[in-house]
Specification:
Layout lengths: L1 H26 L5 E3 L2 E3 L1 H18 L8 H4 L3 H16 L8 E2 L4 E2 L2 E6 L23 E6 L1 E4 L3 E4 H6 L4 H24 L11 E3 L14 H13 L8 E4 L1 H10 L1 H9 L6 E3 L2 E5 L5 E3 L4 E2 L11 E8 L4 E13 L9 E14 L5 E5 L5
Parallel strand pairs: 3-16, 9-18, 10-12
Antiparallel strand pairs: 1-2, 4-5, 5-6, 7-17, 8-17, 10-15, 11-12, 13-14, 13-15, 15-18, 16-17
Helix pairs in contact: 1-2, 4-6, 8-9
Length: 367
């Protein structure tokens, strides 16, 4: 065992010396390395530097717990990695393509302009002067939602005992947890508050699934398409995010849909009647009879509420990301517990620009 350790230490020393010797040779190609006015061979300088680096590393090899050198409490790095994680996840699935207004967010508040109604268009007009039409603009101030994780404890004892970068792993877990809640809040915000002509909420009409719930059938999606058409909602990019129950309903009755579902490799399952179809398990609940959306975080009541599939047009929605901040308490600052604490804060919001171009289909209840 001792011989093995000596072998590896010797190999490490040799590699370190050769690496720094090579670096010194490359740097010194244009100019010689000088010491006290005398030229020195560049490789020898690099080799000496490598020996010094190795000696320092060996001397202080026990000064920090395993994993800390690689993982340390570097909030700037963690926060940057968290932002990358958010940006990559934000471009997947049904959230992709929603207009990003993050550049307009100031102090985690965004100002939108309500441009009012569209101007009237005259065809072959012969009456002059043309009438003046006021389109009153208005400022809409929206505060971004604040998402915070509870602090996670990582003791120095744990860092001594493990060989992987636990702090990086926990940072990733915090990012995923925040993103999951952000998506859940986003789909809730993009669902209608209730049934109107501009925000249709329909009820499924299929057969009883055995629990008193009426299944989703293709005719229900066609009815939703007609409701969007009647409301003059743009046809380009229409998107339908099915809840899991409605996906299962279609799998039972539509073989083509089933084939597409089993073979899809991206977030989109299929195209149905002008809708890009996706699946999401955290869709909001609606009161079945009143067709009103249950408040975010509300507890659905069996027989009164049912989960819905949500439809929207991405170009009519917006999202904005505000500040990302990490918090950390180092173990060295906690002498009695000797534990590191980390958590994160993120500002974000997703909303329709106006209460239009959104809809839902709620599971109906058998008589």
């Amino acid at each position: 065992m001792k011989i093995t350790r000596l072998f590896f230490r010797g190999t490490a020393l040799l590699v370190t010396v050769l690496f720094w010797a090579l670096c010194a040779s490359i740097v010194a190609q244009g100019a010689p390395v000088m010491a006290f006015g005398y030229p020195l061979a560049a490789p020898s300088v690099g080799a000496a530097f490598g020996v010094a680096i190795y000696a320092l590393a060996y001397k202080f090899r026990h000064a920090m717990p395993s994993g800390v050198l690689a993982a340390g409490i570097y909030l700037e790095v963690w926060t940057g990695e968290l932002v990358k994680q958010f940006n990559s996840l934000d471009q997947l699935g049904w959230m992709a393509g929603i207009r990003d207004y993050s550049q307009y967010a100031n102090n985690n508040v965004i100002h939108l302009v309500d441009v009012g109604a569209d101007p009237d268009v005259l065809i072959n007009n012969t009456t002059y002067p043309i009438a003046v039409q006021d389109l009153g603009d208005g400022d809409i101030t929206i505060s971004l939602d604040k998402y915070q994780t509870k602090a996670t404890r990582i003791t120095d004892d744990e860092l001594y005992a493990i060989s992987y970068d636990k702090i990086a792993l926990k940072r990733e877990q915090h990012g995923t947890a925040i993103m999951n809640v952000m998506h859940k809040k986003a789909i809730h915000a993009m669902a209608p508050a209730g049934h109107t002509t501009a925000t249709p909420v329909l009820v499924t009409t299929g057969e009883n699934d055995g629990t008193g719930r009426l299944r989703l059938v293709k005719a229900d999606i066609i009815a939703l398409k007609k409701a969007f058409d009647d409301a003059k909602i743009p046809t380009t990019g229409r998107r339908l995010v099915l809840c899991s129950e409605h996906v299962n309903d279609l799998l039972l009755i539509d073989q083509k849909f089933a084939d597409q579902y089993y073979n899809y490799s991206t977030g989109k399952i299929a195209n149905l009647y002008g809708f890009e179809v996706y699946e999401y398990v955290e869709n909001p609940y609606f009161a079945i009879t009143a067709k009103t959306k249950l408040s975010y975080g509300g507890v659905p009541v069996a027989g009164t509420h049912a989960q819905a599939s949500v439809a929207f047009v991405p170009s009519e929605m917006f999202k904005a990301k505000g500040a990302t901040k990490g918090y950390a308490s180092k173990a060295e600052d906690n002498p009695t517990t000797q534990e590191n604490l980390i958590n994160f804060r993120q500002y974000f919001i997703t909303l329709p620009k106006k209460q239009r171009a959104i809809g839902a289909v709620v599971s109906g209840k058998a008589a």
